[in-house]
Amino acid sequence: MKIQFISTGGTIDKIYFDALSQFEVGDSIATAILTDALVDFDYDVVALMKKDSIEMTKTDRESIRAHIENDPNTHFVITHGTDTMPETAKALEGITDKTVVLTGALTPARFRTTDAVFNLGMAVAAVQIAKPGVYIAMSGQIFEASRVRKNREANRFEAT
Q1: DSSP 53
Q2: How confident is the model at residue 117, as a pLDDT?
Q3: Which segments constitute the L-asparaginase N-terminal domain (predicted)?
Q4: What's the mean pLDDT in 110-129?
Q5: Which residues are 151's β-sheet partners?
Q6: Is the pLDDT of residue 19 over 60?
Q7: 100 SS3 class
Q8: pLDDT tens across 35-85, in order?
Q9: CA atoms within 13 A on the CB side of 51
Q10: What's the number of CA atoms in the CB half-sphere (13 Å) around residue 16?
């Protein structure tokens, strides 16, 4: 089984610029995480966009959907910003014969203390064993696309 990782941006890929005192979305961190983890499966990483998820549009979601529908792969992990991850997951529902898992991070992957590595690992496990459909892997759980929300006050994802 080959897994295609689709990078869309979000906190998982953010870089802090001291001189500017701000964060910006950088290159995908997925390859570095997978290399460090010594994974033994076929994969590739495709960067579709570098956006904070708050800036994602309907057109962006349609582009992600079209990419997955037209790609010959059947297993996808999408790294995505957490603020609108549930909206993108819902926009991907109904894709047939493919397993799609969205994940991200509440703190940048380049930080020493981050949930990024754990979340990406959860997504890799989920995409390999879940039946075709769309899921979110966050907060140590796997959620169905239409049954999850981000609880900003508790800083976690939870079932609805």
Answers
A1: G
A2: 86
A3: 2-153
A4: 87
A5: 156
A6: no
A7: strand
A8: 888 899 999 999 999 888 889 999 999 999 999 999 999 999 999 988 899
A9: 18
A10: 8
Please tell me the total number of residues recorded for the chain in this structure: 160
Domain coverage including residue 32: 2-159
> To 10 degrees, what angle do helices 85-92 and 58-70 make?
50
Q: State the CATH number of the domain containing residue 106.
A: 3.40.50.1170
Domain count, the chain: 1
- Do 68 and 95 meet the contact criterion of CB atoms below 8 Å apart? yes
Q: Under 8 Å CB-to-CB from 132, ≥6 apart: which residues? A: 74, 96, 97, 98, 99
Q: What angle do CA 44, 114, 148 make, to 5 degrees?
A: 75
As given in the structure block, the two tokens for residue 116 are 């990024």
Structure tokens at 113: 């203390």
